[in-house]
Design brief:
The protein is of the alpha/beta class. Helices cover 31% and strands 33% of the residues. Strands 1-3-2-4-5-6 form a 6-stranded mixed beta sheet, with helices on both faces. β5, α3 and β6 form a beta-alpha-beta unit. The protein is globular and about 50 Å long.
């Protein structure tokens, strides 16, 4: 059975705080520690001046590894038809195609631990095991509940 007492490292909470308050972090990618007792920071991607939302999304996708179970925390921004802007921080689990069995099994426990620790992520938690599951427009439609102007 999966370990339900996963620790979320301080590096993760610090990086999430930087992302949440819009300083310099664009997105973060998290991974299991080698002993599967904790979730740790794998990647903290800086904002790039002038980078579009979709280009940041593509950059994040290029950081995913086919051999690992990972978590992505990404603030999605969009415009609604009335002209206002919205933002939600999404939490997505990624299970690469050649990921080991134990990591696959631990993913659900990890999502629960992260949702508890990282306050302010969207209620929806996405799961993906192929890049097509994280297609930008489809993800935006889900998170915005079809209110985003594409």
């Amino acid at each position: 059975m999966a370990n339900l007492n996963l620790e979320i490292t301080e590096k993760v909470t610090e990086a999430y705080g930087e992302l949440k308050f819009g300083k310099t972090t664009r997105y973060i990618i998290l991974e299991f520690a080698k002993n599967f007792t904790a979730i740790d920071l794998k990647t903290k991607a800086d904002k790039i001046e002038g980078e579009s939302e979709i280009d940041a999304w593509k950059r994040m996708l290029s950081d995913l590894v086919d051999t690992q179970a990972l978590y992505v925390v990404f603030p999605m921004k969009w415009t609604v038809a009335e002209g206002g802007e919205r933002e939600k921080i999404i939490l997505a689990s990624w299970i690469g195609g050649t990921c080991k069995g134990r990591e696959k099994m631990m993913t659900a426990s990890g999502k629960h631990a992260l949702k508890t620790k990282l306050e302010g992520t969207a209620e929806e938690v996405f799961h993906a095991d192929s890049l097509s599951d994280l297609e930008y427009e489809e993800t935006l439609k889900k998170i915005s509940k079809n209110t985003a102007v594409l």
